[in-house]
Amino acid sequence: MNMRSSGDESAMVHALRDGDDRSTPARIRDAALSCFAERGVRPTTVRQIAERAGVSAALVIHHFGSKERLRGACDRRVAALIRERKTAVMRAGSGLDPLAVLRDQAGDPPIQRYLARTLAEGTPEVAALVDEMIDDAERYVREGMERGVLRRSDDPRGVAAVLTLWSLGAMVLHEHVERVLGVDLTGPAEAHAENPAYVGPALELLSHGLVMPHWFEAIATAGRPGEDDVPPGTVGSEEES
Hints:
By secondary structure, this protein is mainly α. The chain has a single domain (6-224), classed as Tetracycline Repressor, domain 2. The protein is 63% helix and 0% strand. The chain has helices spanning 6-17, 24-39, 46-53, 57-64, 67-91, 111-118, 124-147, 156-172, 174-181, 189-193, 196-208, 213-221. Helix 2 (24-39) packs across helix 3, helix 2 (24-39) packs across helix 6 (111-118) and helix 7 (124-147) packs across helix 8. The protein is elongated, with a radius of gyration of 22 Å.
């Protein structure tokens, strides 16, 4: 996985201490987000966050009360960025990659690394974050359907939930994704666009699907009264007899 070099971290600290026009709570929150992304929430100390933000540990506690409350602020920040950018992507009529617009960009917190570190921890904050992301995903999926970017669905909520959970699951397994497909899901979006081993199958699945239409109908109607026929064109169907 591509992690920041010590030089990059020094540059970030310098920017936080000199000429940064963000409020002190925002600086602390963004510093915490970066630290959590690099180390995970549990191993990160308040003192490390304070050093990254260029403030005292006492000031961190003054503004947020505890590390857990600070972590909650990070979760809310990530959810807000997800909502803001994905809505913009769908309004622009772009294709749908549920997390593509959140990959590290200049001046942004390392959102993807943060998600990769925190999603598997199973805290109430993570559960609330996932729920909010699914809610937001449903809104932009519906908007994409209205604009003709996405196919119509009888269950936009289910589509949004599955797309979001698949994407977040890949984030948790990002090291295996990089090992198997050669792409770092926590890295810059440009690297994904240049990797056909990842982009090709993803676009094929999202654009054309995988299951043949007659099998889709069979699966969709399975268990309904009177809907136990074998799909046409398959072994055991009337057409084959």
